[in-house]
Amino acid sequence: MHEPLVPTIDFSPAKAQLSDVMDEVFHQHRPRLVLRHRGKERMLLVRPEDLLAMLGDHQLKVSAVYDGGEVTLRIPEMGLLGFGQTLEEATDDLLGELRVYAERYFEQPARYMGTSRAAHAATLLRFALAEEAEQRSMLGLDDVAPEPEVDSAP
Amino acid sequence: MKTPTWDELREFLQHDRWTADRKRSTDHDYFTKTLPDGEILITKVSRSTQKTMSPGRFKAILSDQLRLGEAQFWEVLRTKTPATRPVPAPELEPVSLPLWLAHELERAGITPREIERLDEPRAKALLVEIRLRPPGRAADRVYA
Fold first, then answer.
1. Fewer Cβ atoms within 10 A, N terminus or C terminus of chain A?
2. Distant-in-sequence, close-in-space partners of B19: CB < 8 Å, separation ≥ 6
3. Tens of pLDDT along A2-55?
4. Chain B: nearest CA to A97, how far in angstroms?
5. Are both B51 and B11 inside the same structural domain?
6. Domain of residue A109, CATH code
7. Phi, psi of A131 (to 5 degrees)
8. Under 8 Å CB-to-CB from B76, ≥6 apart: which residues?
9. Are residues A30 and A73 in the same domain?
């Protein structure tokens, strides 16, 4: 195992000085790697706002199906659907679905990390840590719409 | 396309051996199924038991959540035995628009009924046309 590049602290002193460790992580934005059993077990302490910034943008690819007076919003890569009679209702429903999925995912991460759903972890963590308005913006709904491509062929 | 009631979808899940999840929303129940390769499928069922759904919604459920074709869905209900996955011909994805595009069209005054008739190229072309209109000109209606 190579030398950690993030500041480390052993488990026992970390436990004894938890208040100081938290001050460093929270106020000084300094992540800490806590080591146990001579570094065989490690965990990272990081301020959630810092983690959000580190995770960067994770835009969800959402598409809308209009049919028979119903709106269905899809995130095909996650298999999530939001239902409603209007776009607004379907958006709220999809946000609810994402919250249920994130809660389920982080309750039993081992169950999901061994499957293709492992690829959802970073996006879901980003979503789970975000404020409500930011969760909504991850759907792309409130973004400035890109200019549609115009076919320039004659 | 024949579409099921929510009760029929619930019955399908029972025959296809899905497990009811303890998570529930105010008007839906959740179900999960773990495939032999470990993949996890998740779906939800409305408690509006006799209500049916649009073909577009049914296609989205089939392709994104049940990972089956329409024929396999009805076959499970007929035979009361689980489906065999992966299926040779999974359901084609429903016609859909990127969310930003649907949102922009609604903001421009295009009604959901009109958006329903548009595929993505036509929807993008309509948005270009709307953006090029002189200010104050009423939106033209969309004709099939």
1. C
2. B31, B32, B33
3. 777 899 999 999 999 999 999 999 999 999 999 999 999 999 999 999 999 999
4. 9
5. yes
6. 3.30.160.620
7. -70, 165
8. B12, B15, B16, B68, B82, B83
9. no
Nearest CB to B56: which of A67, A117, A139?
A67
Cα–Cα nearest to A65, from A88, A92, A83, A77:
A83
CA A34 to chain centroid, in Å, comes to 23
Do the chains contact at B116 and A66, CB–CB below 8 Å? yes
pLDDT digits (tens, 9 = 90+) for A111-122: 999 999 999 999
Percentage of chain B surpassing pLDDT 90? 70
User: Are both A68 and A42 inside the same structural domain?
Assistant: no
How high does pLDDT run on average in chain B?
A: 89
Phi and psi at residue B26, to the nearest 5°: -65, -30
In angstroms, the CA A127 to CA A106 distance is: 12
Say yes or no for a CB contact (<8 Å) between B56 and A68: yes
Would A94 be classed as within a structural domain?
Answer: yes
Q: How far is the C-alpha of B43 from the C-alpha of A81, rounded, in Å?
A: 8
In chain A, what residues touch B108 (CB-CB under 8 Å)? none
How does pLDDT run across B93-126, given as a tens digit for each residue?
A: 899 999 999 999 999 999 999 999 999 999 999 9
List of chain B residues with pLDDT < 50: 143-144
